[in-house]
Every structure is written in C-alpha cells, then in structure tokens.
Amino acid sequence: MSTPDGSVRASFRRAGSALRSTASRVVDRPSEENNLAGILFVVPNVVVFSVFLLGPILYAFVLSFQEWNLFLGTGEPAWTELFGVSLPVANYVDILQPWPWENNWASLRSPSFNLWWFAVRNTVLYTAVVVPVQIVGGFLVALALDGRIRGKKVYRAAYFLPVMLSAAASGVIWRWVLSKNGVLNEFLRPVGLAYGWANSPDTALGALMLIGLWGGIGFNMILYLAGLQNIPDELYEAARIDGADGLNRIRHVTWPNLRNTHFFVTVLAIIGTFQVFGIALAFAEGGPARATTTIVVLIYETAFARSSFGRATAMAFLLFAVVFVFSYYRYRIEQQEEVGY
Amino acid sequence: MARMSIDEMTKRYESDDGDVLAVDDLSLDIRDGEFLVLVGPSGCGKSTTLRAIAGLETVSEGTIRIGDRDVTDVKPKDRDIAMVFQNYALYPQKTVAGNMRFGLEMTTDLDESAIAGRVEDAARLLDITELLDRRPRALSGGQQQRVALGRAIVRDPAVFLMDEPLSNLDAKLRTQMRTELQQLHDELGATTVYVTHDQTEAMTMGDRIAVLDDGRLQQVGTPMEMYYEPANEFVATFIGSPSMNTLAATFDGDDVLFPGFTYEPTAAQRDALADGLGGDSVTVGIRPEDVVLADEPGPRTTEFVATIVEPMGGENVLHLRHELGEVVATVAGGQRVREGDRVRARFPADHVHAFDGETGEAVFNRTRTDEPATGVVGTSAGRDGDTLAGGSDPGDRP
Lengths: 341, 398
What we know:
The complex is a heterodimer of chains A (341) and B (398).
Chain A (H helix, E strand, L loop, with lengths): L3 H23 L4 H33 L2 E4 L4 E4 L2 E3 L2 E3 L2 H7 L9 H4 L5 H32 L5 H13 L2 H12 L4 H6 L15 H26 L3 H9 L4 H12 L1 H16 L3 H7 L10 H11 L3 H31 L2
Antiparallel strand pairs in A: 1-2, 3-4
Helix pairs in contact in A: 3-15, 5-9, 5-12, 6-9, 7-13, 9-12, 9-13, 10-11, 12-15, 14-15
Chain B lengths: L3 E10 L6 E11 L4 E5 L6 H9 L6 E6 L2 E2 L10 E4 L11 H12 L4 H15 L14 H14 L4 E5 L7 H18 L2 E6 L2 H7 L2 E6 L2 E6 L1 H6 L4 H6 L6 E7 L4 E3 L2 E3 L3 H10 L4 E6 L5 E2 L7 E11 L3 E8 L2 E8 L9 E5 L6 E4 L5 E3 L34
Parallel strand pairs in B: 3-8, 3-9, 6-7, 7-8
Antiparallel strand pairs in B: 1-2, 1-4, 4-5, 9-10, 11-12, 11-14, 12-13, 14-20, 15-19, 16-17, 16-19, 17-18, 20-21
C-alpha cells in the first residue's frame, strides 16, 4: 500500500521539475544559481542544527563505544567478545548484562543486581501508570471545563499552573508536602495515617507518579480543550436527536473526534515519562533505596557522579531506541488507520 | 406522519446589552404530510424556529405540538423528529451504515436484523447501497447529503426537519437534489419543515411557504399566493427573481404621483388606495417580468434610459433609469436593447401592486391569473391550486 505521503512527494517533485524547466526557459540562467539561493536559505538552520544537535549526537554515539577518560579527554574503544567476535560494545554489554531472566528477574525486584534494569523497571512502572491516568485525567478535566460552568477560566489556570512550574521547584514542593514532617502528615497524623511517603521505598515511586500526574494533567487538558473546540456543534446536536445521552455523546462524538489529539497527547506523554528526570532528582535524588532512580536519573549519575561518559551515552542511546520505536510505531499505526478511509 | 403546530412561540436570547428577540410570537399550523418551507434572510429566526421544533433550543414562551402531543418541554429524541443539517453532521468515524443505524440503536429495541433491514431499505430508496461500508470522508458532498437524508428516513419520524440542506452543494447538484427531495417527499408523504434563505427553493419545493423577517411571521401561503398576493412589501420583494420593483410615490386622492410620472389607477385601485392608505405615501410595486415595453405613448407609460443590460439568453434584464428611480424589466432574449437606448415602458394596471408607504402593508395586489397554459391538454390533481407553470403570466407579454 503506498502512503499518501509518497504520492504527495512525487507530485511535489513533478511540480518542482516543471517549475525549474519553466524558469530556465524564461530566465536564461544556469540552474546552479537557483540552487545556491535555496542553499543560502537553509544554511542558518543547517549550521545551528549541525553544531548544537547533530554533532553532539554523533559524538555521543561514538563515545558510547569507548572507555572515555574525562581527565585526559581521550577514549579507547571498549572491546568485548560477543558471539566469538571482538566488538567495541563493552558499554552496552555491561549495561544490559546480566539479562533480567538470567537471575530469575531479581534485578527487577532489587537494585543490587543490575541498576539499569531496575531503573528500566521504575521508568516502565512510572510510564504505565502516569501515561493513561494523565491522558484520561486531562481529557476529563478538559471535558468538565469545556462546558458552561462558572469560573472556568480560573479552574483552567489552576490546572495549568503546575505546567509552568519548573520540574525542580515542583519536586521540592512535593518533598515538603510528602515528607515525614510534611504538610500532608499534619492532616493524617490525627487519624493515625501519618507515613513517610517520600522516605519509604514502597511509596516513593507512587509519590513521584503523583507529581507527574499533577503536572501532566494540566498540560493534556490544554491540548484536549483545543481539540474539543474543533468538534462541530452539529455533531452533538445530531447525536442528541439520534437519542444519544451524555455518556453516549462522549463515546460516539467527543472521543472519536479527538483522534488527532489522542495521538499527539499519547506520543508526548510516552516520550515525556520515559525521560522523567527533573522531578525525580529534586524530589528524592533517585532514592530512597533507588526507588525513584529512573533511566535518565541513572544516566545523569553515571555520567556526572561516576564520570563514566562512555557508559552513560550508551544508556542514552538505549533509551533513545525505546522512545524511537514507540513514536515510530504509533505513527505507523496512525497512518494505516488514515489510509483506511 | 403527523400534523404539527406552533402556538405563539417566542424565543429570546439574553445578552449583555439587552435581550435579543430571535422569534416573536410565531404561530404556524403544518398539515399532515405537508412540505412547509420557512424562508427569510439570515437572522430572520427561521433556523431558531426549526431548532426549537427539534428541541435543540428551548422556547421562551408558547407551545409546540407534534401530532396531539405537547412537546414544548420534551427532549429532542422523544419528539419523534429527524433533522438534516446544513453541513450534514455525519459521524466521521462511523461508516455510512453506522451513521444511519445510530439513531435506531439509541432509541429503539429493534434487533440487529430489523435495524439492518431498515438501513438497507432507506439506502435502496436513496441509491446509496454501495456506499454503506464507506466512511463519510470518502464521499462527495452530494453523497454525504444522501446519507444525512438516509439517517433521517431510517428513523421513520413524524416530522422531518431540514436546515438549509442544499446550500453546501454546487449549483448543478443543488438543482438535481431539489428535484430528488421533492420526489422523496411525494414517495414518503412525510410532514416536512424545510428552512432555506433561497426563495427559488422555497417557490419550487414548498406546498406552502412561511416568510419570516426579523423574528416575525410575515405571511404563510402557497407559492402562488406569495407571488400574486404578497401581504406586504417585504414578502413582495423577497419572493420572485429578479425581485419586484418598489417605487415611492404619493397618492393625491385621484392619481399616484411619481417624480416625473403620473400613474392613473383604475377605479377599483383608487377606492382601495382611498380606503387602505394610512397617509398619502404609497409604494408601488411591479415585477420586472410585468413591465411592458410599449410602441406608443399612452396612459401608465413613460420613457426610460437603459443603463445596464444583462443578457441571460432566454431573457434580457434591463435596468431602466428614470426620475422616479431605477426600474428593472425583463424582456424576451430575442428583443435587442442596448445600453444607453431610450426605452418606453408601461406599467399594466392589472399587474401593479400597492403598499402603504409607511407600514409596508399591501393595499391592493395584482390580478391573479390561474388559467391552464396553452398546450395543457389533460389535467391531473396537482398541488392545491398551484397549477400555473412557472411564475410568469402568459397573457400580457409583448
């Protein structure tokens, strides 16, 4: 099945070559000069992109295969034997091994076996809870604040406020709220439920999820509010005449008409949660007992606390691979659905 | 199928700078099986009226009855109506069949096969059977329109409500769908309320037309009544294309005086003016097709200068300038008039309308002709008294 993109690109190409041939006939100039003008236009972007993004990425990619010495500023390829061949992938192998099934999944239960897999566990748990709740929560809040209610602008601002707060600030605020002598416990102590929410390995990740939701719901709410504006009123009216009650209108009109928003929100949420870092670091610095060590926290530690840059960049590329696969497949699925029309 | 009535309905919208009166004290009876067209300029309250019938708007005062039931405070789904929207309002994620069956799934206990049967019947009627598995996005405007109609038909409602259903279609398709809608109405015999701003649609489709302006009902009647016997100046100028010429004049008890021209009324017209006028100002109306070019000077005849000539093929539309104002006249396409020509034209007495210059109410209307056209050799039962072909009068053409 050919993608619509392909045909569009082809027609652009045709139009482009038609334009070029017309131009060379009308204006008698060599076509190289036209190309030069085009190149000049893209140069600023290419330069900035190369120097600040592409270059560092490629450099990091090379680093991920090296044993990097921060003090000397030089690296040696990190060789290891893999399937009987010597390859410079020692960083990757060290990170991934032992595989979690080799020690009966112990590295998923305790940070003392393989910290990478424990961080992956934390991140996946965090994502699995935060993404759906954040999306459904953002949707429900948007739905509630889309109607005619008093003071909806105040509510909207209130829900959006956490988004404007820096991750470090919200991490600190929540540490105050949830710590042993924090604000929350002032209320819980009289009923005997006081607990070190931020200080216990059992609850710290849950607390981190709470912070993630607190910030994420407001962000998704804004995206969903924008999406809701685009649904024509007539669809709701047609549904009312067709006999759909409120819930059925949400199910048959609102939800399916937000397809593009769902896609956008899901991709952003997954990418965002996989890379959760600021709140985790500010809230509990990866602890207690590594309970809030997410992948990026681990990368940060490996690079800047242990100066293992080669290993940290290798982790970063593993994370990139995961995020890329998610984004790419979500995108492909979306496209296939589009083609079905 | 059912009759329907609206009784003294008023709809007010509250806004910061005072209330807005969208519909003002509207009463309307719609007969069983009738095709009633609500027509008027934008903002006249026609759509609000339709939406009130549908239950999408609450009414401020008055009652709405469908059949013998007062439905004023009944939810849309319980009113036994179906509506076709201007932009079709098809559910984009559902197939054509899914769109058509949705209402039945929501409101009835019909089983799967019964629903499928009704959807197929409606699809066959509208010739969209092969589209049933497609999604709206894959359909043309005309096809979407049919699906929207299908969604309404499947419900088998007491009343069909249509809100400018043809205005998103191109001109050719609109004409075609107009005919199809009429055939469909003949076939189903369903009570229909049809909103449009297009007087051509109103004239060609309606069993009766209700003209609204500024939230008020101006007149209800058959298309021919609207054409021949407009109740006021608004209806007179709204119905008919090009629209009726209206010329301000004064009545001195004997004659109707225009700047530079005197119209001599017939005895009956003189009596009507003497009785009917509030003051001495009168607005004289004459349709472009009734202005007659004249060889000879004579009573009710004066000379104009043709400023613009619009050739339409079958007819030429002349814009004639005179001290009394601009008069539009249509003459047969074969008759050549050039821009700048001096033209003598007559206002035939039996084709002239007069309206009160202050209130706009009709004082007298033109003589109505209702004779079979030349060439009619057999008659069948037509629409109530509306057997005239087209709107023009065959008698008084030059």
